[in-house]
Write a structure and sequence with these properties.
By secondary structure, the chain is of the alpha+beta class. It contains six helices and six strands, in the order H-E-H-E-H-H-E-E-E-E-H-H. It has a four-stranded antiparallel sheet with strand order 3-4-5-6, covered by helices on one side. It has a two-stranded parallel sheet with strand order 1-2.
Length: 196
């Protein structure tokens, strides 16, 4: 009975099918199977509009939580970037990661604060407290070295830069200066003790 109701509801509608993530032969096979089921049980015809080929970039984009990169010719990177920017979701993007810095593990969080704030913000947590906070405005010259103007790329660029600076010691955490001074004092005292 449900099939009859559906068939009646669809009798005045012509349905078209596009098969996603398939090679041409697979898409045609899927369409013919679907068409046979619809014709037999619903009494309706389908139109085959085509297929969208499989692209490994789509799977990678899903895993990384980003939109797929567009393939473009070298002369057109700005066009591709504009198209991708238009497709970029309006939602804020961010990165979270546990990172080993010296003898401790810290949590590094970088996020887009949105169009109202027009900035990105990185926070580093250790032992449940914030030990570093960095805010970078959208228009900062810092992003001239970023791979693109896309928010997701800029967030990742800022995040990777913060992590690298922490791990190399170029960016000290709150309390690191105290530890460094205490370590230096012990070293100085130890050297003085050996000399005297």
């Amino acid at each position: 009975e449900k099939a009859r109701e559906l068939s009646e509801a669809l009798s005045s509608v012509r349905l078209s099918v596009i098969v996603n993530q398939a090679a041409k032969a697979d898409a045609v096979r899927v369409f013919h199977s679907l068409e046979a089921v619809c014709r037999r049980f619903l009494g309706i015809e389908l139109d085959f509009l085509g297929w969208i080929p499989s692209d490994p970039g789509v799977g990678r984009a899903v895993v990384h939580g980003s939109i797929p990169r567009l393939n473009h010719l070298p002369p057109a990177p700005l066009v591709a970037e504009r198209v991708q920017a238009a497709l970029e979701p309006a939602l804020a993007v961010g990165c979270n990661e546990e990172v080993r810095v010296g003898d401790r593990v810290v949590h590094v969080q970088t996020e887009d604060l949105g169009n109202d704030a027009r900035a990105y913000h990185s926070l580093v947590y250790s032992g449940g407290r914030i030990v570093l906070s960095k805010r970078v405005e959208y228009g900062s010259p810092f992003f001239e070295r970023a791979p693109s103007r896309l928010k997701q790329d800029r967030v990742r660029f800022l995040h990777r830069t913060i992590v690298a600076a922490l791990q190399s010691g170029r960016l000290p955490l709150d309390g690191d200066n105290d530890r460094t001074a205490a370590r230096q004092e012990r070293t100085d005292h130890g050297i003085a003790g050996r000399q005297g």
